[in-house]
Design goal:
The protein is an alpha+beta fold. The chain contains 4 helices and 13 strands. It has a domain of 77 residues.
Length: 366
């Protein structure tokens, strides 16, 4: 190596670009980056929390709507069938096909109404379906034979020696005895009525719908009060009152009638809904009666032709608010499901849904 080259190596200075490329972060830069990271994480957590609470709130609203629709479907179905096979005598607590029970018959309600209806129960499928296994003759009926296991199944649904059954909806008779093993029922149906094999058999029951509020001393809601129950009032076993929809907070009913106003056609039904006071020759909301006892003729339940049903459902749990706060920010204002009836106070913690439906009582006069 030459002397010139050795001197060049000895006098070499580090490149400034190398020192700049190897420089680290300052404390201020680290603190700024940490602060930005905390902000991003906090924003993400807030979005996640808000989304989670919103999803839970929406799920509760959907559940309340489903419970409301299911409850309305069941009660309107029974209203349409009320009076099917009516024997013309009291069955249980049903002195009529529909027995209104307004919470306060003489004024504005302070709670939910209830109603009892004479409705048919049957089983249309399976080997133990409630149908005749053999045809009858025109000489009269003293006993009918059903499919094997059908009578035993009817017993679990409330069949007793004093029950009423209807065969095909065309003949109704009181049961005097039955043999579950032989699947026979003793009834008395005079000639010339006769029935074919596989004609349907119905058990007539007096079913009550009522809203049970907390604290639910009888535990009818199984710990989920308020709820709507259905079943034989005071009954036991499979036909006893049982919850059919939770979260149902109110049931209000109003009735339109034909022949319940003495000043109209002498109180005789004329297939036209009675125009209630004030008379305006128009069918409107005023023609639906609520808060009346239905005990003084001609204002009796057999004149009812239309039933207006109002159900109120609420969320099963209170909203948890949104974001990081647990304070509820959603609720419900005061609600009056039917005009001039029961008013539910505002609820700041639960959202409500209201469903109103008018139902034709197809079989009430049978």
């Amino acid at each position: 190596m030459t002397k010139k080259a050795l001197m060049a190596m000895t006098n070499h200075q580090p490149d400034k670009r190398d020192s700049i490329g190897q420089r680290g972060f300052t404390l201020i830069e680290l603190m700024i980056g940490l602060a930005l990271g905390v902000i991003v994480v906090a924003a993400g957590f807030t979005i996640l929390t808000t989304t989670s609470k919103a999803l839970r709130a929406n799920e509760q609203v959907v559940d309340a709507q489903q419970n409301l629709r299911m409850a309305m479907e069941l009660i309107t179905r029974d209203i349409k069938m009320a009076g099917f096979g009516n024997p013309g005598v009291p069955v249980g607590n049903c002195t009529y096909a529909i027995v209104p029970n307004d919470q306060t018959p003489t004024g504005v309600d302070s709670g939910a109404d209830s109603v009892q209806m004479l409705v048919p129960a049957t089983r249309t499928t399976g080997t133990n379906r409630w149908t005749l296994s053999a045809a009858t003759t025109t000489s009269g009926v003293s006993s009918i034979t059903l499919q094997p296991g059908a009578v035993a199944d009817m017993v679990t649904s409330g069949l007793a020696a004093s029950s009423y059954i209807s065969i095909g909806g065309s003949a109704t008779a009181q049961v005097t005895a039955f043999n579950a093993a032989a699947s026979t029922i003793s009834v008395s149906i005079p000639p010339p009525l006769w029935f074919q094999q596989n004609d349907q058999v119905y058990l007539l029951q007096c079913i009550r719908y009522q809203v049970v509020q907390p604290p639910d001393a009888g535990n009818l809601c199984a710990g989920h009060a308020p709820c709507l129950t259905r079943g034989v009032a005071g009954g036991a076993g499979p036909n006893a009152e049982a919850p059919i929809a939770e979260g149902i907070e109110d049931l209000q009913l109003a009735y339109a009638c034909d022949g319940c106003v003495a000043a109209i056609n002498g109180g005789i039904p004329d297939r036209i809904i009675d125009d209630q006071l004030p008379f305006n020759n128009t069918f409107d909301q005023n023609d639906f009666l609520s808060n009346v006892p239905w005990t003084a003729a001609p204002l009796t339940p057999d004149k009812i032709k239309l039933v207006q049903v109002a159900l109120v459902a609420r969320q099963s749990k209170a909203d948890q608010g949104f974001g990081d706060s647990d304070k509820s920010v959603m609720g419900s204002a005061a609600i009056t499901p039917l005009p001039n009836d029961h008013t539910l106070a505002a609820d700041p913690n639960h959202r409500r849904r209201v469903l109103v439906k008018t139902v034709d009582t197809r079989n009430i006069g049978f």
